[in-house]
């Protein structure tokens, strides 16, 4: 049987993705301030299923972490030393043929506390060097402005994103980097997985639950401020950066009903509708009607300035970027049903799907569905900026890493991406998560490996940090050179 040749559109942006707080390290170098990501601790001897409750950000934990000047228990403070090793890593990405690399700018490298008038020049120079090196390797930067980190000073003195003043601080940061890098960066993303603030308020919004009587009220007020900040970032990006495109980012949580029982259908519908809430605001430019009932039933009142609705309406994003790792299943009554974990959220197990080493359901067809549903709803360009397989990798005696399981994962997802393009979806590009092994966002462990490149470091921080090409490195290089399968 002849294999179908799946060629992607000319100019398709193949690449990979990383985040500053998971790769850079150098957490207190060259004037960088302390961020929310620097609070994340690696808990030893904790099961994966219990990790989330053991890693909650309590007042006690924050105070202890703020006083601890070491990095032993805080892997994100170490990263994979990308801050010093980026030329080597970018050369490897260039060898693979990356057209683009998604990175983020650490707010605390530019404004250590977040509320300064003048930026930290050493931080600005680092990203100058980084973007120059990317261009040297033929790689176009795709830059996220806020990726799961913000200055701890703003958390402790302003309540994180709950206070309106933080919008002003963030926009000052945005204007600074837009002006500095306007000739080097044309593609931008505002907030990484902006919807995640409702699931982990501290990581996404700098909101410490113990400090608020009504946490939900604080979360949705903080989210509103992020919506406004996102729209204003779009405004100033268009004004400052010639020829720029700036998008939002969503955690795409495609949800199936457990059965055709109307109650299960309704549960799945509501889950998908809520997932669309975040893109409805940023693409359509207004709060959707269905959220009025939600806010009323929750007793949530969003405080707005008179200009807010006009800001949202006038400055919608140019494209939608999103992460997709797995699909979910919803049931009206899930009592006693087998559950699975996922990207910051879990659900009822789907018996038709296999799961990864970390229990995430693998569903390539769900990616095609996600692409079609998003494009049908909004008819704006789409960009898959996170997708990949976290797995245990073994270094063989000859030094090789035979990660055929990762190749199989990508091949299946690429096939469905191509099907979606044939369906009529306008897909700009694809950046795998993460292009190189990095510190896990959720658990701060290293053994959950995503990369095409192996990094010699274990969960306890031991290792040489040597980089090794995996088998998938060469496979993805071939995909890019052929612009498809």
SSE arrangement:
Blueprint: E1 13-17, H1 20-23, H2 51-54, H3 59-67, H4 75-78, H5 82-96, E2 100-104, H6 107-110, H7 121-136, E3 140-146, H8 152-158, H9 165-181, E4 187-191, H10 201-205, H11 215-240, E5 245-251, E6 255-257, H12 262-284, H13 290-298, H14 308-314, E7 319-323, E8 328-330, E9 339-340, E10 347-348, E11 354-355, E12 361-362, H15 364-378, E13 382-386, H16 404-423, E14 427-433, E15 453-455, E16 467-469, H17 471-482
Parallel strand pairs: 1-2, 1-14, 2-3, 3-4, 4-5, 5-7, 6-8, 7-13, 13-14
Antiparallel strand pairs: 9-10, 11-12, 15-16
Helix pairs in contact: 5-7, 9-11, 11-14, 15-16
Task: Kindly provide the radius of gyration, computed on alpha-carbon positions and rounded to a whole number of angstroms.
Answer: 21 Å
Oligomer: single chain
Average predicted local confidence, pLDDT: 94
Measure the end-to-end span.
16 Å
Largest sheet: 8 strands, parallel, barrel
Provide the CATH top-level class.
Alpha Beta
At CATH level 2, the architecture is Alpha-Beta Barrel
Q: What percentage of amino acids are in beta strands?
A: 5-15%
CATH superfamily: Glycosidases
Q: How would the global form be characterised?
A: globular
- How many structural units, i.e. domains? 1
Q: Percentage of helical residues?
A: 40-55%
Q: What is the CATH topology assignment?
A: TIM Barrel
Protein name: Amygdalase
GO biological process, one term: carbohydrate catabolic process
Family: Belongs to the glycosyl hydrolase 1 family.
Keywords: Glycosidase, Hydrolase
